[in-house]
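Bench notes, bay 3.
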Amino acid sequence: MVYFQKDIKDKKDVKKQKEEEKELKKQQEEMESKTEESCQETHECCGKHKCEDKHECCENHEGEEKHECKDKKELKEKIEKLEKEKKETEEKLAKEKDDYIRLMAEFETFRRRSAEEKLSIVSSASADTIKGLLPVLDDCERAIELLEKSSDEAAKEGTGLIYNKLMKYLKSKGLEVIEAKGKKFDTDFHEAVAQVPVAEKEKKGLVYDVVETGYLFNGKILRYAKVVVGI
């Protein structure tokens, strides 16, 4: 706000100086015109032009001519002073404008950096929270595997319902399961905990089994999938 006020004030000063300069130039032109007209006139006392050399009978006009020369000189000095002030004001205005632009650029950088840091903190906190729930998902998966051999349908249905609801909620927050079984072993997503010989040539180098499910959070690794690789 201070920069805006200074900007407006400086612009008003420049405008005022331009008006004063214009008025002084107008006065100067009028005085020069008056001087030219005076040169065309003659003194009644001697018939000589007023702009010619001084005559002994025209000494009474000397004071008037000197006064006009003095006014002209003062007017010229005023114009030069106004032009100097105008230049200084314009330079000051340009400097303040440059400072204002720099300040706005720094503020925009600060605002963007603060927003990124805030987003990073929130994302990190969310990742830590979800990572703490992964053992619960592991237990649900083990329970579902064990209940497949059981005849207790209610237990199967209840455990599956809990697991699915929890997984659905976590997926809505950015959690993704790393597909591993039957995929080519990739160190960017998989962690080999064992190797097993395979008869089929095409299965060599592929993930034979998954020991622990891996997860991504918002496209980044949250936990590597622990796998068994066929050799």
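Next record in the batch:
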Amino acid sequence: MSYQSLQDVMKQQKGRETMQETRVLVETRGTTGEETISYWFDLPIDVAEFEEKLGIGAESGDYRIIEKVLPYADEVHEHTSVYQLNELDFMYRQLSSDMQEEYVSLLTVFENLEALYICRNVIIVYPDCKSMIDVARQKLMNDPTFKHLSDDCQEYYFDFEAYASHLQEHGKFLVTEHGIFELPE
């Protein structure tokens, strides 16, 4: 994705209400005798505003991140660039609200935000399910394979426990307090 299209998408999203606060405290690296300037920026960071507030170029590397309030804080370090911050913010905002809510749990399965972002469209979320039996019921209702079964057959004869066991043995699932995620193999 080009930098310009990334900027355009971020401008569109800037007005959206975010579920979690995302901001960083950036400090200039003054040479001996120079005053350092610090400023809190909400993400995504507008490069023109960044350069205006701090008086340095975003590409200069003459700044460092000294504090951060981010759900993906572990991926941001002192020398992370403004462009990398904006890219991480973009990836996070592209996750569904269910994935954002369970971001920490999902990181037990995915290596980092980028890996989760890449797989976001193949992860199936069952937000109202508390057990694999609930997932089995939901799959039965939505899977065209089972459409030929009558409601009576589904209700009285279908073995949801066995189907739930089959799903668990042949799939990859993450159970969280807000639902169950079916993950790619």
